[in-house]
């Protein structure tokens, strides 16, 4: 295992779906909780990490989100947000993530008086500091931001406006997050229309806890350029479990997603925890990739899911038979789906990803 892990650790990586408030260092969480008086299930790092994984492995999205109460409790001040964001960038760079888009909902960080703009500015400051330190240590990384409105909230239009306002400061897109069932993306059309009107890219959580209708609304009614998770698109594909692309039949929505190259931000470990998939071996990511969908590999919430990009790769190699070619494919898919300019995308692809995989092939 160790030689494989070390090889995978060195591979260049791209992550498009990772929640900032689900990716704190456990030691930082314990320290900040002690300062603020917030009670945690444990103050032992190993025990608390295990608690998060167990609590998240609930079989439903709604229960999966409950552990966020602890990270959100301590991410309510400017300094806490700066620190969490700085450490976030450093932790990703340490496993050779060369490009990342982190997402969070600013409205969840205003309990102690920060304005929505204050929250965004603090996160951007922290990400910039972490990225600069990583580059200085020889591990360059770009970290961009996606701002989320909450499906069950009332601030989505305001968040979309702020995403446009901060687009020159590292914000590259807009999303909605939170419970899917009962909160369709079409409830937030005004927010999406504002983003589209200003040329701001959109990704939408869909097809995880709720089925095909949420994906259909996301891409047709709300014009999402990417889908967060989207595992349930497999429900529109007959014969996908046979392992033979020639024996599959795509339904109209699946055909549209594939033909229009809509990226799917799949998160295997998280999808197992929420009940969206039964096992890594049976996860739709392999079938969808082999069928020609634009699949990307992601972590979702690294602390709460107990994972990392290296671990996600390792699981797919060990349990789903993935090869270096498949890992390269999802990495290239991810950078080609990033919400950045073609110049930035091509620079990362040609100077970091392609050479990194070529080096791995020679080892």
From TrEMBL:
A molecular function (GO) held by this record is: hydrolase activity
For this protein, the record's Pfam families field holds: A_deaminase (PF00962)
Q: Per UniProt, which keywords does this protein have?
A: Hydrolase, Metal-binding, Zinc
Taking every annotated instance into account, which residue ranges of this chain make up the domain Adenosine deaminase?
12-352
Which Gene3D superfamilies would you find in this protein's record? Metal-dependent hydrolases
Q: Which cofactor does it need?
A: Zn(2+)
Under Enzyme Commission nomenclature, its number is: 3.5.4.4
Family of the protein in this entry: Belongs to the metallo-dependent hydrolases superfamily. Adenosine and AMP deaminases family.
Write the protein's name.
adenosine deaminase
Organism classification: Bacteria, Bacillati, Actinomycetota, Actinomycetes, Streptosporangiales
């Amino acid at each position: 295992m160790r030689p494989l892990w070390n090889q995978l650790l060195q591979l260049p990586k791209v992550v498009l779906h990772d929640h900032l408030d689900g990716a704190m260092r456990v030691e930082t969480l314990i320290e900040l909780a002690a300062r603020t008086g917030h009670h945690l299930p444990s103050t032992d790092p190993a025990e608390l990490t295990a608690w998060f994984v167990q609590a998240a492995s609930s079989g439903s999205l709604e229960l999966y989100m409950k552990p966020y109460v602890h990270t959100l409790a301590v991410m309510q001040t400017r300094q806490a947000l700066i620190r969490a964001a700085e450490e976030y960038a450093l932790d990703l760079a340490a496993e050779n993530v060369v490009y990342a888009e982190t997402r969070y909902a600013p409205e969840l960080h205003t309990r102690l008086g920060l304005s929505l703009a204050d929250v965004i500015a603090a996160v951007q400051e922290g990400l910039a500091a972490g990225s600069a330190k990583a580059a200085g240590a020889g591990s360059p990384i770009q970290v961009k931001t996606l701002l989320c409105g909450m499906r069950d909230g009332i601030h989505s239009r305001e968040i979309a406006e702020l995403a446009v306002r901060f687009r020159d400061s590292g914000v590259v897109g807009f999303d909605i997050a939170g419970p899917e069932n009962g909160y369709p993306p079409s409830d937030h059309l005004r927010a999406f229309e504002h983003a589209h009107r200003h040329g701001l890219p959109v990704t939408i959580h869909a097809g995880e806890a709720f089925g095909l209708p949420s994906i259909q609304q996301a891409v047709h009614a709300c014009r999402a350029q990417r889908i967060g998770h989207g595992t349930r698109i497999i429900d529109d594909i007959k014969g996908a479990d046979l392992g033979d692309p020639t024996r599959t039949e795509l339904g109209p929505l699946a055909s549209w997603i594939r033909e229009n190259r809509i990226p799917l931000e799949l998160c295997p470990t998280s999808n197992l925890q929420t009940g969206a998939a039964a096992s890594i071996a049976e996860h739709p990511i392999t079938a969808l990739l082999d069928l020609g969908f634009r699949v990307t590999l992601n972590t979702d919430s690294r602390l709460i899911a107990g994972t990392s990009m290296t671990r996600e790769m390792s699981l797919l190699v060990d349990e789903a038979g993935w090869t270096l070619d498949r890992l390269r494919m999802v990495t290239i898919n991810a950078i080609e789906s990033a919400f950045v300019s073609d110049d930035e995308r091509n620079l990362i692809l040609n100077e970091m990803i392609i050479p990194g995989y070529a080096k791995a092939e020679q080892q």
